[in-house]
């Protein structure tokens, strides 16, 4: 049986975020495309992350949701959209047969 190729796909999501007095961004909830809401229990790590697009930079948040480790990315705005601060996404597998 032929094994399918798995590629990761960016899925943009709504994230409810708090900012503290120092400007630190703390994601609290992820709202999925179908309306489901997932509470972020804790942020374990935060680090710069690469993107496929040369004009964009991103930060990766390692978060705990439902007791499981997940990765949430904040893609920073680019030169083309001056009013866009950025947007959140997760990477999901997309299977090709």
Spell out the blueprint of helices and strands.
Blueprint: E1 5-19, E2 25-31, E3 37-39, E4 42-49, E5 58-65, E6 68-76, E7 86-96
Antiparallel strand pairs: 1-2, 1-7, 2-3, 4-5, 5-6, 6-7
Can you walk me through this structure?
This protein has strands at 5-19, 25-31, 37-39, 42-49, 58-65, 68-76, 86-96. By secondary structure, the protein is mainly beta. The chain has one domain (5-96). A seven-stranded antiparallel beta sheet has the order 3-2-1-7-6-5-4, with no helix packed on it.
Key words describing this protein structure:
seven-stranded antiparallel β-sheet, mainly beta, 7 strands, 97 residues, single chain, globular, 63% strand
Strand order of the largest sheet: 3-2-1-7-6-5-4
SSE pattern: EEEEEEE
- How many domains, as an integer? 1
Average pLDDT, rounded to a whole number, is: 85
Radius of gyration: 15 Å
- Assembly state: single chain
Enumerate the spans where pLDDT stays under 50 for 5 or more consecutive residues. Answer: none
Portion of residues in helices?
under 10%
Structural class: mainly beta
Our measurement of the CA-to-CA distance between the termini, rounded to an integer number of angstroms, reads 11 Å
Largest sheet: 7 strands, antiparallel
Q: How does the overall form come out from the CA principal axes?
A: globular
Number of strands: 7
Helix count, DSSP H or I runs of 4 or more residues:
0
Strand content: over 45%
């Amino acid at each position: 049986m032929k094994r399918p190729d798995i590629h990761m796909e960016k899925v943009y999501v709504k994230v409810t975020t708090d900012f503290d007095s120092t400007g630190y961004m703390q994601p609290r909830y992820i709202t999925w495309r179908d309306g489901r809401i997932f509470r972020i229990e804790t942020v374990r790590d935060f680090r710069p992350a690469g993107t496929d697009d040369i004009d964009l930079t991103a930060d990766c948040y390692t978060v705990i949701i439902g007791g499981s480790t997940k990765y949430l990315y904040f893609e920073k705005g680019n030169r083309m959209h001056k009013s866009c601060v950025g947007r959140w996404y997760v990477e999901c597998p997309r299977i090709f047969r």
